[in-house]
Amino acid sequence: MKFLLLATTLTLTLGAQAQRPVYLDETKPVEQRVEDALKRMTLDEKIAVIHAQSKFSSAGVKRLGFTDFWTDDGPHGVRPDVLWDEWEQAGQTNDSCVAFPALTCLAATWNPTMARLYGHSLGEEALYRGKDMILGPGVNIYRTPLGGRNFEYMGEDPYLAGRMVVPYVQGLQANGVAACVKHYALNNDEEYRHQVNVVVSDRALHEIYLPAFKAAVIEGKVWGIMGAYNLYKDQHNCHNAILLNQILKRDWAFDGVVVSDWGGCHDTDQAVRNGLDMEFGTWTDGLTMGKTNAYSSYYLADAYKRAIREGRYTERELDDKVRRVLRLFYRTTMNRQRPIGFLCSEAHYDAARKIGNEGIVLLKNRQNVLPIDTLTARNILVVGENAVKMMTVGGGSSSLKVQRELSPLDGLRATLAPRGVNIVWERGYVGDTNGSFNGVTSGQDLSESRTPDRLVADAVSKARKADYVVFFGGLNKSDYQDCEGHDRKEYGLPYGQDRLIEALAKANRNLIVVNISGNAVAMPWADRVNAIVQGWYLGSETGHCLADVLTGRVNPSGKLPFTWPRTLDDVPAHRLGTYPGTWRPDHKIIDEEYKEGLYVGYRGVDRYKTRPLFAFGHGLSYTSFRISNLRVDKTTMTHDGKLTFTVNVANTGKREGAEVIQLYISDLQSSLPRPVKELKAFMKVSLRPGESRDVTLTIDNAALSFYDDSRGVWTSEPGDFEALVGNTSDKPNLKVRFKLTDGLH
Ligand code: BGC
């Protein structure tokens, strides 16, 4: 009897297993499951998964048990839900999030561990919100400080951006949430972003604009790439044969999906043949315009189906797209091991604070004005709209609805009021009083009745009596500031802030200027201000992060991820008159030729011998460091070998602190012109007072290579090289030479 029962159970179990189709069998390799699912899908089902069905979702395959697929912005937190087919808020009560610091700040940490923490924490928020793909991070190179979306990107250097994007992607995807690295490629400014045709040399494309994307694909193994709005070689980048078919899919062997930017797809034939896999946002300008429920008239919907039925295409291209989408499903929605995630957990706030603390950059600190001496200070005057204005609302698609956001003023009060410090706020200037974006409102009343002169006078009279004056100004996320869709109109600070700062500097020598922005700004008053801090957009924990650094609870260790020029004329793109480009006679396309080629950022500083206000890689600390004794393990290297550099770093001051050791390579003999030096390794080290440590940095052939455009390959040439080591790009004072004995051709 017992035996009989056992036999029946066994048969049932075996029977169930035998019936389970391969595509649902988790013991089978994913590629086999993909092929099995593909075989079972009808033409309608295949077409349905390659385009949107709502503003942010695409269909699964209900009959086979594949659920709908949900995307969401990105990249600083999970965007609140909009209606199914409208951009208006859905009005959910469970879609408030933690806002993490903007990606410029993340890049300024120069700490890949922070990028991993960022991706991981954001992934948990996304999971809880039911999102399968985060539309980010962005790694477009910072080419001009006018760029409206620079705050969403990781700075001017391809190597730094590459080191930071990989762990962000890995952290996010470890949770079973896809990253969608954007905007591929050459979307380096916002003005006319749908019409700009970028003209760029192959060398600049491969050496400057593509490496961070390549790192995300090859090392980060990213599951999604978003095509950019602009054009390259007269073809929109969401269906660009060279960028997508040749470089991304053939050369880099990308096996994920190419997602169009919202409204970035323009043509069925190009979308079919040139590598687009999922079409989103068509009939919109990415924001508001739109036809209602137009999903079946998308370029990859009915028009494509009809063309297949009429025999204009076989299903070859379609199957390639669907395979990629199915692979994406297995990685995300069909991953049964996916955790549930958390929303607004304390761990996420802690992560946001930690990242913000590490990214704030101390640009200048004459006479050690900072940190604020909390033992002697009794009266602090805080000035500026940015001390109170919520900055998580605005900026375009990265705008968020946060559970909480602590302002700089409240952060300082929370830290200093318990110590008996009296803090008073004066507005000083009026920027933008509108606190709403896409239906999310900050609820702040920023109206003001005083005249600009009165505002300055009121601030100055109080500044005279204060122990410290802390000014929070800069940009904000309103149109033509740090905001998607347009670039800034000028390099100078808006809203008359220069005049105010000059007046405050005269009134009080303990003036601390905290610039809130994602971009460099002109600082004509820099010589007259003793302390300058770059405060970025720090998200939910803004107030805590800034108070931590200003009061010395945290010793600043951020380094600029971009060059801070004195004037716009010092920026190669502007000096050469390349921005924003030249309209063609039909006024449909504007050609923007990147005439500066490789010489972007510090590469341009070296080339044109300009003197930036603050150099790429610059950032001060409340302690001091000595970097000495640079050594290299060998003086020759072969193309398949490695070199290890060792340098001693000592904390010679009185506080614990962290320093970023930066290694630049200079090619001393080359058949093609090369930048004077390029960042090829870095490491952040934390040291207690008096502590010293040897830091090792290793490079391989990639650090010596350049793109040979005559042959379309990366190559290195035998000859002499120099490694330059330091803690900023303008003074890498330690040098050591070595030789590459055989190049890679
Ligand atoms: C932006 C993308 C964003 C998408 C969806 C577009 O306008 O360029 O970065 O992910 O909208 O909101």
Question: How are the SSEs placed, and which strands pair?
Answer:
Blueprint: H1 2-19, H2 30-40, H3 43-48, E1 57-58, E2 69-72, H4 103-109, H5 112-128, E3 133-134, H6 158-173, E4 178-184, E5 196-199, H7 202-209, H8 211-218, E6 224-227, E7 231-232, E8 235-236, H9 241-251, E9 257-259, H10 268-273, H11 302-309, H12 316-331, H13 346-359, E10 361-365, E11 379-383, H14 408-416, E12 422-426, E13 436-437, E14 440-441, H15 452-465, E15 468-474, H16 497-507, E16 511-516, E17 531-534, H17 542-550, H18 572-575, E18 582-583, E19 590-593, H19 602-608, E20 625-632, E21 636-638, E22 642-651, E23 657-667, E24 678-687, E25 692-700, E26 706-708, E27 713-715, E28 719-726, E29 734-742
Parallel strand pairs: 2-3, 3-4, 4-6, 5-7, 5-19, 6-9, 11-12, 11-15, 15-16, 16-17, 21-29
Antiparallel strand pairs: 1-2, 7-8, 10-17, 13-14, 18-19, 20-22, 22-25, 23-24, 23-28, 26-27, 28-29
The structure holds beta-D-glucopyranose.
Organism: Prevotella illustrans
InterPro entries: Cellulose_deg_GH3, Fn3-like, GH, Glyco_hydro_3_AS, Glyco_hydro_3_C, Glyco_hydro_3_C_sf, Glyco_hydro_3_N, Glyco_hydro_3_N_sf
Signal peptide: 1-18
